[in-house]
Amino acid sequence: MVLAVAVFIAGFFMYLFAKNYRHLQNTGAFRSTVHSYRQALNERAPITDPHAIESWMTFDYVNKMFNLPVSFLKTEMGITSTKYPRLTLYREAKLQQIPEQLFLENVKNAVLQYATSTPQK
Amino acid sequence: METILGSFLSFLLLYKYTALFVISFFAAFLLPLPSSSTLAASGAFASQGYFSLVVVLFVALLGNVVGDLAGYFLARRYGEGFMSKIGFKKVFSSRYYKSVVDYLTGAPHSLIFFSRFLPEVGPAVNILAGITGVPVRTFLVVDIIGEVFYVLLYGLVGFFMGSGWESNMSFLLEGGMVMLSLGIVMALIQYLLFRAR
């Protein structure tokens, strides 16, 4: 009896998992254009939307994701910390005594401005 | 919860593979850390070119296995003595405990394997395996196999989801629930077979 219930529950979760997987595949959540592991390794999947930037990210990571020159955000945001770029956005907001959300918006706007004014490779 | 995960992600971005090893180790050893989310995030960061996928999978595997073994060996060496001192002495001399020991030393495979997919349960199983005297070789082999599958599941899902991994956490949770429920089924089957034997 217990085994039958356990099998039923396992089947239920497998159904949910398969259903969610199909949904994600259909909406393009997976990198569905990638057909092989080798292709996946060679094809980077960077973030392209500056609104995806979050305060837990580091400047190093943001620079890499948006192909920014290393000194760009340092100049734009007036960062003086010697830890840059290995520094999180929320930490820098704290150092500059600016509200975290405001600082984050400023970073997003700076990245957006750079992206629209610079031809992307 | 978001802030806690954010702190772990910052730690991961700042200290990369070292952070991944530390989180994997302590999650496998004893602490309730979000190691599955961290592993999926590392896979996503690898898809973005920030990490190497192969190194992520290797470091996560190493951290998990070393953490499991640390918990297992400490429990094996000191577990029973410590548990007896804090009031579990009667449990160890009970007939029920003896049958648990017989089952675990005879057929622990599915319990150990499937508990690798649930970092919340894994450390408890490691301690139980150590205290009940599951053979070292059996534990090591099943643990490594289980951790390989676990690391591949969460690491590759994060890799193929890319930057969308965070908004699809429910998918990862469902994967974990599938493994948990399959683990319960397998453990029950194994227990019934063990009893029949």
Task: Explain what the structure shows.
The complex is a heterodimer of chains A (121) and B (197). Chain A is built from six helices and no strands. Chain A has helices at residues 2-26, 37-42, 59-65, 72-76, 89-95, 100-117. Chain A is elongated and about 65 Å long. The mean pLDDT of chain A is 81. By secondary structure, chain B is an all-alpha fold. Chain B has one domain (2-196). Helix content of chain B is 84%, strand content 0%. Chain B contains eight helices and no strands. Chain B has helices at residues 2-29, 35-47, 53-92, 95-106, 109-115, 122-132, 136-161, 169-196. Chain B is elongated, with a radius of gyration of 18 Å. The A-B interface holds A 2-3, 6-7, 9-10, 12-14, 16-17, 20-21, 24, 29-31, 34, 40-41, 44-47, 52, 54-58, 60-61, 64-65, 86, 88, 90 and B 6-7, 9-10, 13-14, 45, 47-50, 53, 159-164, 168, 170-171, 174-175, 177-178, 180-182, 184-185, 188-189, 192. Chain B: Pfam families: VTT_dom. Chain B: It is a multi-pass membrane protein. Chain B: It is found in: Cell membrane. Chain B: Residues 33-158 form the VTT domain.
What's the structural blueprint in terms of helices and strands?
The complex is a heterodimer of chains A (121) and B (197).
Chain A: H1 2-26, H2 37-42, H3 59-65, H4 72-76, H5 89-95, H6 100-117
Chain B: H1 2-29, H2 35-47, H3 53-92, H4 95-106, H5 109-115, H6 122-132, H7 136-161, H8 169-196
